[in-house]
Amino acid sequence: MNSDTTSGAGFNSEKKMKFQKNFPHVISITSGKGGVGKTLTTVNLALSARRLGLKVLVLDGDMGLANVDVVLGLQARYNINDVLEGRIGINSIILDGPLGVKIIPSGSGICQLAQLSFVQRIALLEQLEQLNEDFDVLVIDTSAGIADTVLHLNSVAEQSIIVTTPEPHAMTDAYAMIKVLSDQKKQPNISLMVNMAKSEMEGQQVYNRLSDVANRFIGKDIKYLGMIPFDPQIQKSVAQRRAASEFTTHTNAGQAWNKIAQNIFDNQGEPGIREQDQIWRELVWVNQSNAQLSSI
Ligand SMILES: Nc1ncnc2c1ncn2[C@@H]1O[C@H](COP(=O)(O)OP(=O)(O)O)[C@@H](O)[C@H]1O
Ligand SMILES: [Mg+2]
């Protein structure tokens, strides 16, 4: 990553050294139900991490309407499919976002990683290994639901953040996600973030219910990251396609995201000790994880 991307973002080398020993390399943002705020969470965590001086790469693993690039006020000309089809090298598809966040734009190749052929995976790995960027943290925005690729992307992460709203369907689907992730051979730490909550209390209640059920029925401890208030300004900003960085600092929701990011990057007990190349190998090598493989 260019050195200029680390300046002007509150970079503090002493603090950064501390973070590098303590935070997870790979964080996935996932959910059972769509439209709960995964992409906004991805973007806000990425921007917050940049403010803390971390080098951040976002992998957009969802092809929703409001993709990472759109929410950041960018437009991707190329995506991972152009790379897979040999039209362009990986370094040419990376987008430069606000504050120096780097983004690998979505494409069906990433969204259907579990369906890629062996040859395609090797080609993708070769490309990823050629990335000019190095990163302190990779944030993966996944699709909703328990498709093979979503499970695989979560298995690459040290920490999976499950996003839910207080809405009963979203909670039921969040529980299904927790259950399926807990059945996998390679499990990330699972934490919960409650978005669009009316109050701290409502967020806490949603967490209590889900963690209680997860504990009782699957013996799984879920960490609570906190809640993001429902904030009409967020909807306005998204509709106007204003870059997310604007509302991260000025709105209640933005500040709540910032606080959660600070907790993640400050308080991790165990370091993410993988080499970057190993992360890429785990990412493309679906066989090593739990996703069912299509024919190679
Ligand atoms: N905290 C919030 N307050 C108000 N609206 C929100 C909030 N978080 C998300 N939204 C709304 O939900 C929509 C979906 O969010 P998004 O991050 O795209 O969800 P997902 O990626 O899970 O599909 C946003 O476009 C926005 O209108
Ligand atoms: Mg999304």
Describe the structure.
The protein has helices at residues 13-22, 38-51, 68-71, 80-84, 108-111, 118-129, 148-156, 168-183, 200-218, 232-239, 244-250, 252-267, 276-284, and strands spanning 26-31, 56-61, 95-96, 102-104, 137-144, 159-164, 189-197, 223-229. An 8-stranded mixed sheet has the order 3-4-2-5-1-6-7-8, with helices on both faces. Strand 7, helix 9 and strand 8 form a beta-alpha-beta unit. Helices cover 45% and strands 16% of the residues. The model is unreliable at 1-12, 14-20 and 289-296 (pLDDT under 50). The protein has one domain: Rossmann fold, CATH 3.40.50. It is built from 13 helices and 8 strands. The radius of gyration is 18 Å and the shape is globular. The longest helix is centred in the last third of the chain and has 19 residues, at 200-218. It is of the alpha/beta class and 296 residues long. The site of adenosine-5'-diphosphate has 19 residues, from helix 2, strand 7 and helix 10.
